[in-house]
Design brief:
Strand content: 15-25%
Structural class: alpha+beta
CATH class: Alpha Beta
Helix content: 25-40%
Radius of gyration: 19 Å
CATH architecture: 3-Layer(aba) Sandwich
Distance between the termini: 26 Å
Number of helices: 11
Number of strands: 14
CATH topology: Beta-lactamase
Amino acid sequence: MRLEGGNKKVNTLNVNSGELLAVMTRSGMVESQHYGHLVVLNPDGSTLLDLGQSRAQMFPRSAIKSMQAVAMVRHGLNFDGRNLAIVCASHGGTDEHQEVALENLKSVGLDANTLMNTPDKPIDESARKAWGDKTPTSLAANCSGKHSGMLATCVINGWDLKTYKNADHPLQIAIKKELEILAEEKIELTSIDGCGAPLFTMSTLGMARAARTMRISGDPVHKRIVDACIANPRMILAEGAFDTRMMKKVPGLFVKGGAESVMVASLPDGHAITWKVLDGSKRVDGPIMVAALARCGITVSGEIVEVMGGSEVLGEIKAAF
């Protein structure tokens, strides 16, 4: 499939071009299959595993929020700890998450009314249940942390606050530049993410290169961002949720997922793992991550996805590589 990006034709993911990443079995028979694109890089940057079309462009969604944060910190954003981590997060919308995002805004004289991300209810199950029938808000939405960082960066630089989501805004131009440097490839198409901010294409290989660079470059901006995320895994998603859970299980592991089953992970030694599941299903995250980490010499337990028949376990979802 090809899309028009300005005057350029963009190579996009072909649904028939992925390789088998995971299967669901029931009573010994394969019932469902999940195809996609996956890259695992060695610490030296060489390719350990390359499945599917690793150079095809796709939308990385929220998986690259930590990379977007590089431009913000580079342009004066002075957050640390959980305040910086939530800028890189797709948080659960708990009271704590909302408080931290609001702290970020108040630190530059703003309030929740300045947020322009799409309103939503919390995505954390408990927080969403407690929210009940209340009207969705931008602060409760999982991208409010990122937008709090974007707005704070604009205040610091004297940039217009009402147009910060426009692709031609100085902030978004700076983010695009940093993404291209990290991924070592040109962005071919710009769209709009669910939160309303610009969404830039990237390849699975480009994401892996970027993730590895942020772990081994020695750039203090990269180190500051990664350290904040790893030290505050509860900020990245929510207690018990996949990204947070995996970061707690494996010391030094950074994990950030995105909508439509995109994933970025990296280890302190420079191993990097990225994937895009073509059907958008996130039920395969655990089995794929376990198999990918095994290629990096790390054993993780407890991520088995059982297939039930009544009260009996009849199979499982497991990685195919």
